[in-house]
From TrEMBL:
Similarity annotation: Belongs to the multicopper oxidase family.
Protein name as it appears in the record: L-ascorbate oxidase homolog
Keywords carried by this UniProt record: Glycoprotein, Signal
Domain of life: Eukaryota
Signal peptide: 1-21
UniProt organism field: Datura stramonium (Jimsonweed)
Length: 554
């Protein structure tokens, strides 16, 4: 028998026996503790991971299996979510209060998930209480496999930059304020990787660059409520990736980054070797907040200039400026992402829409306390995670499906406080419209999916607006901003079975109800579509002690 035939026979034998090499595993052990932090100079209780803030980086490759053993050494229940990781067939690992029982104080839980068919810049953060306001977050960098071409040369190095607003009140004080029915108000400042600085202050450099080399900066906005603008002194940025999509590589002097969003830029060290400022300033606040960090040239001489690059306009003109920048972000149709085929081979604009869901956010008082909602429903977490009661066949004991309609009521400010769960038909292609009638910007994230952000425009949406959709090269992403008195449209296929959280990324609003869950059930109850409840998954609430349901089969 020829060698080629032997190889084929051996391969077929391996397939029949299920002996195929698994994708690599990466193992992490994290100790979550309190520690004193002072990002704005005011000491307060922060949340550290292995003593770090921001937390350790998960540096992985597409299709890697990630195993994270989390020890909760806080005095409160705790959960991590993996923002942007799609958890195909596996919402059990999503780490939201609607999918998992929390890790209790003094206990540990091991997350196991795969970054299946994904590349890009993501992050993890705590979804319990107001823990996000105390830190506990860090980067997830997912690289392309070696055989998949990347549409830019390998950078000399990669730097993760976490930016956002910060409150000097501790997370427990902020939670008490919200539980008391009041707003947490304006933030106290802007931080960059857990620190802040003013022009002229003697600070250690954030990062160092060598003259003539190009570097990749992965920016994420992990603030509580403020959009920001990022810019380098004397160095334009080439946008190359945004939330898992390779972009058309336009150059920018500054970039708006809204709460919960991530993007990657290339910066070339081609200026006089000395120090330069990275500038981060708030957007759309009455009073601008800002911070700087030093980017140092190796062997450079001289301090950074006190003359900072100007920030974009910050009024109505500024919103138009930001919208136009959004429209300039385009999918690189010829580039490959996690798979060998080009991104543009998926013609999303030619798929028929089977359902339109129009969501209007609102703010109101319920029982004298501040609440936020979507289409008149202000979500509250049930005692038992929604996914668990659904899996155990006890959903009717915890929540009702579809209390929120696909259209906003006449007065969406009349809020009902209840668990907000919507049914979504498996593999249906849907259009979701976000309409923001308020004076402040919103950002929304959907777990378990990426979607095509086809339009952002001022005013109110109507079916005629579809003619303005970008149906060719809109970015596939997981977060979308909705400007004041404006709307945004996204399109996606509900092809990932599970219970998935759609939420405001502005945590005050999320905590007070501006979120919902999509229940996406496969009618076949097959392991081809969804994994069974993991053996190590804790049970709590009404399902504790219930007999386990019959498992899904292949």
């Amino acid at each position: 028998m020829g060698s080629a035939k032997v190889t084929i026979v051996a391969l077929l034998l391996c397939l029949s026996l299920g002996v195929m090499a698994e994708d690599p595993y990466l193992y992490f052990t994290w100790n979550v503790t309190y520690g004193t932090v002072a990002p704005l100079g005011v000491p307060q209780q922060g949340i550290l991971i292995n003593g770090q803030f921001p937390g350790p980086r998960i540096n992985c490759t597409s299709n890697n299996n990630i195993v994270v053993n989390v020890f909760n050494n806080l005095d409160e229940p705790f959960l991590f979510t993996w923002n942007g990781v799609q958890h195909r067939k596996n919402s059990w690992q999503d780490g939201t209060p609607g999918t998992m029982c929390p890790i209790m104080p003094g206990k540990n839980f091991t997350y196991r998930f795969q970054v299946k068919d994904q590349i890009g810049s993501y992050y993890y953060f705590p979804t319990t209480a107001l823990h996000r306001a105390a830190g506990g977050y860090g980067p997830i960098n997912v690289h392309s496999r070696a055989l998949i071409p990347v549409p830019f040369d390998n950078p000399a190095d990669e730097y993760n930059v976490f930016v956002g607003d910060w409150y000097n009140k501790g997370h427990k004080t902020l939670k008490k304020i919200l539980d008391g029915g009041r707003t947490i108000g304006r933030p106290d400042g802007i931080i960059i990787n857990g620190k802040s600085a003013k022009v002229g202050e003697a600070k250690e450099p954030l990062f160092t660059m060598e003259a003539g080399k190009t570097y990749r900066y992965r920016f994420c906005n992990l603030g509580m409520r403020s959009s920001v603008n990022v810019r380098f002194q004397g160095h334009p940025m080439k946008l190359v990736e945004l939330e898992g999509s390779h972009t058309v590589q336009n150059m920018y002097d500054s970039l708006d980054l809204h709460v919960g969003q991530c993007l990657s830029v290339l910066v070339t060290a081609n200026q006089e070797p000395k120090d330069y400022y990275l500038v981060v300033s708030s957007r759309f606040l009455k009073q601008e907040l800002s911070s700087v960090a030093i980017i140092r040239y190796a062997n450079g001489k001289g301090p950074a200039s006190p003359e900072l690059p100007v920030s974009p306009p910050d009024n109505t003109e500024g919103i138009a400026w930001s919208m136009n920048q959004f429209r300039s972000f385009r999918w690189n149709l010829t580039a490959s992402a996690a798979r060998p085929n080009p991104q543009g081979s998926y013609h999303y604009g030619q798929i028929n829409i089977t359902r339109t869901i129009k969501i209007v956010n609102s703010m109101s008082q319920v029982g004298g306390k501040l609440r936020y909602g979507l289409n008149g429903i202000s979500h509250i977490d049930s005692e038992t995670p929604l996914k668990l009661v659904e899996y155990f066949g006890a959903a009717d004991k915890a929540f009702k499906y579809d209390l929120m309609a696909d259209e906003a009521p006449a007065d969406p400010s009349k809020l009902t406080v209840v668990s907000n769960v919507k049914n979504a038909t498996f593999r249906n292609y849907v259009e979701i419209i976000f309409e923001n009638h308020e004076k402040t910007i919103r950002t929304y994230h959907l777990d378990g999916y990426s979607f095509f952000a086809v339009a952002v425009e001022p005013g109110k949406w109507s079916p005629e607006k579809r003619k303005n959709y970008n149906l060719v090269d809109a970015l596939s992403r997981n977060n979308i901003q909705v400007y004041p008195n404006s709307w945004a449209a996204i399109m996606l296929t509900f092809d990932n079975a599970g219970m998935w959280n759609l939420r405001s990324e502005m945590w005050e609003k999320t905590y007070l109800g501006e979120q919902l869950y999509f229940s996406v059930l496969s009618p076949s109850r097959s392991l081809r579509d969804e994994y069974n409840l993991p053996d190590n998954h804790p049970l709590c609430g009404i399902v504790k002690g219930m007999p386990l349901p019959a498992p899904y089969k292949a």
